[in-house]
Write a structure and sequence with these properties.
This protein is mostly helical. Helix content is 68%, strand content 6%. The protein has one domain. Keywords: Membrane, Transmembrane, Transmembrane helix.
Amino acid sequence: MAEINHFEYGWITPALSYALSVLGSFLGLICAGRIRTAATGGQRAWWGILAAFAIGGTAIWTMHFMAMLGFAVDGTRIRYDVPITAASAGIAVVAVGIGLAIAGTGRVSAPRILAGGLFTGAGVAVMHYAGMAAMRLNGRLGYDQPRVVASAVIAVVAATVALWLAVTVRRALAITASALVMGVAVNGMHFTGMSALSVHLHDTEREVAGAEVGTLLVPIVLAVVFGVVGLVYALLAAPTDEDRAATAYLDARRGTGAAPVPAGPAATPDPVGLRARSTLARPGTPFPSRRDRAPR
């Protein structure tokens, strides 16, 4: 049995994987909160897709790949099958999207959240072990069944909690705390599943086919950067509650035939009466009499 190192580069890879899971969870929770306040079915679908990409793509799958950068096996190099790796990313996004569709539409209820969490958690577990199956090395992979079951249970519990938070949390502080908790749950599921792995090297050296980690790292990092920027832009460009209220007010005034009240020039502060003094000092302005200047 070969010796396995899950932290070849020390604390860097687990720290980055946790940061990615928190960032994806934070953006995903914000997008999920917009689902229930959306005015049309198209808007709900749009925010659901963005939330699925944020949670499934960034918080779960990208976290998984970043943690795998620190995975090493003595005596063999590791490569990855690109189609299976891409399929594992699609599984994560689709699983989260379906879970949000189950739990986040209609009336919020415990059966909906449990059903969505069960489906999403199973999808996350499939994603994890599909990503492991994409590894190519000079050896055979083995798994400890109890730990595999434990990782699947953690995935279902984490997904259920994530969906519950997605449909109930609204305040910024609560969203931040929830993202931190979700980051712990996602990383806990990953490293529990990784602890179940064992590698038995082949007796003879064999050619290892597939893409190296460095080859996949650049496109994945670019995808994450552009994806996060796109999510932030979508959130900033979306109208707020104040914008919708102002639009409704203007529409109501137009409907009654009343002209919108024009906004006058902003009044500048005049704490010591400079504006009044300048008025008195204009040419042609009569100087007030003693009686007018007397205090009343």
